[in-house]
Structure formats: structure tokens, C-alpha cells
Design brief:
heterodimer, A: 207 residues, Rna Polymerase Sigma Factor, Chain: A, Arc Repressor Mutant, subunit A, elongated, B: 246 residues, alpha+beta, 5-stranded antiparallel sheet, 7 helices, 5 strands
Chain lengths: 207, 246
């Protein structure tokens, strides 16, 4: 399997279904990172991310026939399976709650708070920034979170994300927009709570 | 372009996706005169920078080697299991079902024909469907010598030769001297014909496809050609065995 790098996903999958473990390993190593990172950003948990990664590739072992190359790339299929597992896991655990009330999709929300706060991440160190962004993303409602994770972190196009999420491109766009608005508000709140401890009135908790 | 337009385009503006040059320039022009929209666009750019920082930090992240090892183990187990259980038994099951279905089809066909034949027979004809007495056949009912029990020349049906059964059940009606008959073939799987206390033998006509159903090689052209058969009916009225006659 020395030339597995040159082989397409479809070829590797065909060999995998024929029992070629080297082809399976090549396929796994090619895609496990993105599946793992997607699950990690969606759940905020290394344990969940590993479990989901394992489940996704178990699906590939047991039910490779479910993937139809004519419907899209293998990565999109794997994201779709990972998404289902993550959402199921989140639903089961109920560990994460939205920090902002959800409203109708595509609705533009005014952010007057940002008028005099031009940089919500300005004072943070790199390490803090990473922690805060990840926390804020995990706190997003799932529908916005998955759009943000796919488009902003995994760098999928709107069209690719739409295939994974099984929704129109416009829906991805509106969810992304709404997700960004929520994130900005959340990060501003984090920044405020970091600098001013006694401002609980600005924090809305729905836990 | 107003504030709402800028708001709606702010994400695409930061991502530089799905935003044409004209819209982008209009967003920038509006932001120069509107502090609120300027802040919104700045926030989007900052957010994007934050995403990129996180994505860069996570770029090398992946599942631990434990996951790969567990998956490979599962893969090998599945491959072995798939070969052992999913392939061979499926074929075997399928073959068994095909044979069962074929036997059931023949059984149903034969039973239907026999019943209709019995109902339609005249008193003289019913003599042909004589009852075979139980117990060993006496010397008065010798089995005529036939040297060609197989219907298709040298094709023999393995396991179908039962001399005792033949002596016992094939006494009536006997095939004409010009006729060639196969051995009796049980129609019920595992049926012990020797255990029958009494039985009847009925001559019927079946389509050639009935031979295929019991595993005899038949040309496709013969599938609709009627063939003669002797059916052994048990005391319970069920067809128990069949032989084909030519």
C-alpha cells in the first residue's frame, strides 16, 4: 500500500470492503483528523471526540455501502455521520446549553453593544483567545455551532457544508451569520466579565 | 446600502465568500460613515482571526493511536466474521430456501392435481387408485424388473433408491412395459416412506417444470410439456412421494 497517497478515497474504500486492512488504515489516517477535530469543536470534549471518531470509522467498516460517491465526497459523508453521532451524544449528555435564546433563522440581530467595543478579543493572550473561542463555540446552539465549525474551522465552502448538513446553501449562510453574531456577543460578555467582575446583569444564563 | 444590508453581508465580507466586488466596496463605504457597522465588520474580522488561531492550534490534533488500534482490531474481526458468517451461511440459507420453495411448489401442485383427479374419477377409474396393504408385500405382488430407474438416461438420483419402499408402494399401478420410471422421490424432507401404514398411488400429469423443481435436468422447451407421474398419497391425504414416468 505504498502508493495509498495517490489512491482516491473510492479506490481505498473498495479495497477496504474487500478486506484490505492497509487500505483501511490509509483511509483512516487520511480522514480521522478532520473527523476528530469536528467532533472536538462540536463537543468540547476529547473523550467524545475520540468516541465519535471511532464510531464514524466503524460505520465505514460495517456499512461502507451507505456511501454513494455520486452524492459527494467521502469527507462529506464522514462529516455527516460524525454530526449525527455528536448530536446524539450531546442530546444524551445534555451537558451543553445555549447561552442565548434562539430566534428564527436568518433573522438579523442588532448588536448595539459593539458600537463602542471595536475588538472583542483585543486584550487576550493567544492561549486565552483559543480557550475563549472554543468555549464560546461549544456554547452555541447545535445548529449554529455545526455551521461555524464546518465553515470557519474546517474551511468547507457553503455548498459543501450544505451537503453535510443536508440543507440549502442559504440556510448555511444564515446560520453562520447568526452564529457569528452570538459568538461576538458571547466573547464581549467574556471580555467584560474578565475585566469587570461585578457585572452579572449583562450575563444571560439559560442553564 | 444601509446598516441592515451591511449586517447581513458582514459574515460573507469577513470570509470573502459569496460577496462580489461591488457589494464589498459598498460595505466598506458604508462602514466609513457608520461607526456601528464599522464595529460589526471589525468584530467579524477579529472573529475570523480567532477562528484561524484555533484552527492552527488544532491542525495537528487527531484521535489517539488507541482508536486506530481498536478500529484495526474491529476491522480484522469484521473481515473474518464477514467471510465466515455473512457469505457462506447466506448462500447455504438461500439454497435451502430455494429447495424448500421448490418442494413446496411441487407438493402444492401435485396435491391439487391429485385431489381434482380423485374427485373427477369414475368408479371404474378409482380401481386404479388401489389401496396398498400394509405389511411386507407378498409373493403375489412381485416388482417387475426395470433396469432404468433414472428418467434421464444415465442420470441417477442419489439417495433415492429404496428397494423396500419400491416393492411396497410401486405395486399399483405399475408402469407399462414400454414405460420408464424414475425412483420415488420423497416430497417431504426427512419423510420416512417405510413408516406409511397404507397409501394410494395415483397417476397424474404435470408440466415439465415440475421436474426442474425436484432437481431433474429438463430442457427449457420441455417446461410446458405435460409429463406423467405417479404420486404416492399417504393415509392422511398428503402426497408423500413422486416418480416420473415416460
Amino acid at each position: 500500500m505504498a502508493n495509498s497517497i495517490a489512491q482516491t478515497d473510492v479506490e481505498l474504500l473498495r479495497l477496504t470492503t474487500a478486506g484490505d486492512d492497509q487500505a483501511f488504515t490509509a483511509l483512516y489516517r487520511r480522514h480521522q483528523g478532520q473527523v476528530y477535530r469536528f467532533a472536538l469543536l462540536m463537543s468540547g470534549s476529547v473523550g467524545v471526540a475520540e468516541d465519535v471518531t471511532q464510531e464514524v470509522f466503524m460505520v465505514l467498516i460495517r456499512e461502507a455501502h451507505r456511501y454513494d460517491p455520486e452524492r459527494g465526497q467521502l469527507s462529506a459523508f464522514l462529516y455527516g455521520v460524525a454530526r449525527n453521532h455528536v448530536l446524539r451524544r450531546i442530546e444524551r449528555d445534555r451537558s451543553y446549553v445555549p447561552f442565548i435564546e434562539e430566534s428564527g433563522e436568518g433573522e438579523a440581530i442588532p448588536l448595539p453593544q459593539l458600537i463602542d467595543r471595536d475588538d472583542p478579543l483585543g486584550n487576550f493572550t493567544r492561549k486565552e483567545l483559543i480557550r475563549l473561542v472554543r468555549q464560546a463555540v461549544v456554547a452555541l446552539p447545535a445548529r449554529y455551532r455545526e455551521a461555524v465549525v464546518l465553515c470557519d474551522f474546517q474551511e468547507l465552502s457553503y455548498a459543501e457544508a450544505a451537503r453535510v448538513l443536508d440543507c440549502p446553501v442559504g440556510t448555511v449562510s444564515s446560520r453562520l451569520h447568526r452564529g457569528h453574531s452570538m459568538l461576538l456577543e458571547r466573547l464581549r460578555i467574556m471580555k467584560d466579565s474578565d475585566s469587570t467582575v461585578n457585572e452579572p446583569s449583562s450575563l444571560r444564563c439559560f442553564a | 446600502m444601509n446598516c441592515r444590508d451591511v449586517e447581513m453581508n458582514s459574515t460573507a465580507f469577513a470570509r470573502a465568500e459569496m460577496l462580489d466586488g461591488v457589494t464589498r466596496d459598498e460595505c466598506l463605504a458604508h462602514a466609513e460613515t457608520c461607526a456601528r457597522c464599522a464595529a460589526r465588520l471589525a468584530g467579524e474580522r477579529t472573529l475570523l482571526a480567532g477562528f484561524q488561531t484555533v484552527a492552527g492550534e488544532l491542525a495537528g490534533e487527531g484521535a489517539s493511536p488507541r482508536v486506530e488500534a481498536a478500529l484495526l482490531h474491529a476491522f480484522h474481526e469484521h473481515a473474518a466474521y464477514g467471510l465466515r458468517v455473512l457469505q457462506m451461511p447466506q448462500k447455504r440459507h438461500r439454497a435451502r430456501w430455494i429447495w424448500a420453495a421448490a418442494a413446496a411448489a411441487v407438493l402444492a401442485l401435485v396435491s391439487t392435481l391429485v385431489v381434482s383427479r380423485l374427485n373427477a374419477t369414475s368408479p371404474n377409474e378409482t380401481r386404479q387408485a388401489e389401496e396398498v396393504p400394509s405389511g411386507p408385500p407378498g409373493p403375489s405382488a412381485p416388482l417387475p424388473e426395470r433396469d432404468t430407474p433414472s428418467f434421464n438416461g444415465d442420470k441417477k438420483i442419489a439417495g433415492q433408491r429404496r428397494e423396500v419402499n419400491r416393492r411396497r408402494y410401486v405395486s399399483q399401478p405399475q408402469p407399462d412395459r414400454n414405460e420408464i420410471a424414475t425412483d420415488f422421490m420423497p416430497l417431504l424432507e426427512g419423510d420416512d416412506l417405510a413408516s406409511l401404514d397404507s397409501s394410494q398411488l395415483v397417476r397424474v400429469e404435470l408440466p415439465g417444470s415440475a421436474l426442474i423443481a425436484v432437481g431433474l435436468p429438463v430442457d427449457a422447451e420441455m417446461a410446458d410439456t405435460p409429463v406423467k407421474a405417479d404420486v404416492l398419497i399417504g393415509h392422511d391425504g398428503l402426497a408423500r412421494a413422486i416418480r416420473f414416468v415416460r
